[in-house]
Write a structure and sequence with these properties.
Largest sheet: 6 strands, antiparallel
Distance between the termini: 20 Å
Order of helices and strands: HHHEHHEEHHEHEHEHEHEEHEHEEHEHH
Structural class: alpha+beta
Strand content: 5-15%
Shape: elongated
């Protein structure tokens, strides 16, 4: 087995998956040199010391360190400093190999080609592999201005609370919009928290921002009618994504489990509705709102609880209410990942990689 295929199989063990495809092989050959991928197959998704990776790959410390730094500079692997030493780990396809290289803004011939390849790979294989399982990776999160008439709003359900509770925030260009170059929505709206946000800032792929600027970016995305998603766990947010790539798992590929809805659903206050149609024509991404005569009506089975119809209604005639049965949210990101890998049958392979 050649090194590129061996590396792909490692990536495919991750919950995000990396199904076999000639398109993906071409992507990997653009992102990694043969020497780099030969080193990467000795790495893990858990960051390791240079000496450990070098020993596994039978390279000198200096050779391995130089190569790992080159890959981290391209954002095709992850790096973090701990106890004064730099550690390096693999990143998955999503979020990682797809998004990170585009976060500087794109525009080069290489990135244009890479964008076309990722778009083709999403249609061919990755979209279904990523989202085709009962436990979704991500969930819809409404913005706080959309939520009314509820007794308690849990922090894991509200993006503003996620930002308020963050200890480190990075803001980057939306890789999806940069890669396809066919969207006029705001670009600098991708919010990354914690160590991965810090890594992207250190490598020049994002910039550190305060909570006010992060909230301003979030509001610009909301005003543009963008749906917000985050990791489908109740512990700490890793990212707030305001793009349609994840949503296409349902709208284009037909995977009903592509993402989890929020614990809210939209409800029309009929006496306030004037039938303007903004909610149905401009704000609902999922076709959940339509006009019946001169009143808006919500098809609850299609409503994801994103709140865009609420924040876009000039008459304040729509509100979010709690669902009778709220979707189950895994307690932690680790619990969510374990469930996904059990469903996809990759848990044993992934644990083998992590135990290196």
């Amino acid at each position: 087995m050649d090194m590129f295929e061996r590396f792909r199989e490692m990536l495919d063990a991750h919950p995000s998956r990396a199904p076999k495809s000639e398109t993906f092989r071409e992507i990997l050959q653009m992102l990694f040199t043969p020497e780099e991928v030969a080193l990467a197959v000795h790495m893990s998704f858990k960051p390791k010391r240079v000496e450990d990776i070098a020993g596994a790959a039978s390279l000198s410390y200096d050779e391995a360190a130089a190569m790992l730094e080159r890959m981290a500079a391209k954002a095709v692997i992850f790096s973090v400093k701990k106890d004064g030493k730099m550690l390096y780990g693999l990143v998955p396809t999503i979020p990682g190999l797809f998004e990170f290289p585009f976060m500087k803004g794109g525009g080069t011939p290489e990135l244009k080609k890479l964008g076309r390849l990722w778009e083709a790979y999403h249609r061919e294989a990755l979209g279904n592999a990523f989202s085709g399982n009962p436990t979704p990776h991500v969930r819809i999160v409404p913005i706080s201005t959309s939520i009314q008439s509820v007794n308690v709003v849990h922090p894991c359900e509200e993006v503003k609370q996620m930002i308020e509770g963050a200890d480190y925030i990075a803001l980057a260009h939306c890789a999806c919009r940069v890669s396809v170059e066919r969207c006029d929505a705001p670009r600098e709206v991708c919010i990354i928290f914690g160590s991965h946000g810090r890594f992207l800032v250190e490598r020049g792929y994002a910039r550190e921002v305060g909570k006010d600027e992060a909230l301003a970016a979030l509001m610009s995305a909301e005003e543009a009618g963008l749906v917000h998603t985050s990791n489908n766990s109740a512990d700490r947010p890793m990212i707030i994504c305001s793009c349609c790539t994840i949503l296409r798992g349902r709208t284009q590929l037909g995977n009903l489990d592509a993402f989890a809805p929020s614990r809210f659903e939209a409800e029309v206050v009929s006496e306030l509705c004037n039938g303007c149609g903004i909610c149905s024509d401009r704000r609902c991404f999922f076709g959940a709102v339509h006009l019946d005569g001169d009143k808006a009506v919500v098809a609850q089975e299609r409503c994801t609880g994103c709140g865009l119809c609420v924040s876009g209604c000039p008459e304040k005639a729509i509100r979010l209410k709690e669902r009778a049965v709220a979707p189950e949210i895994p307690k932690t990101a680790i619990e969510m990942a374990m469930k996904v890998m059990q469903e996809k049958g990759t848990l044993e392979r992934f644990m083998h990689i992590m135990q290196r």
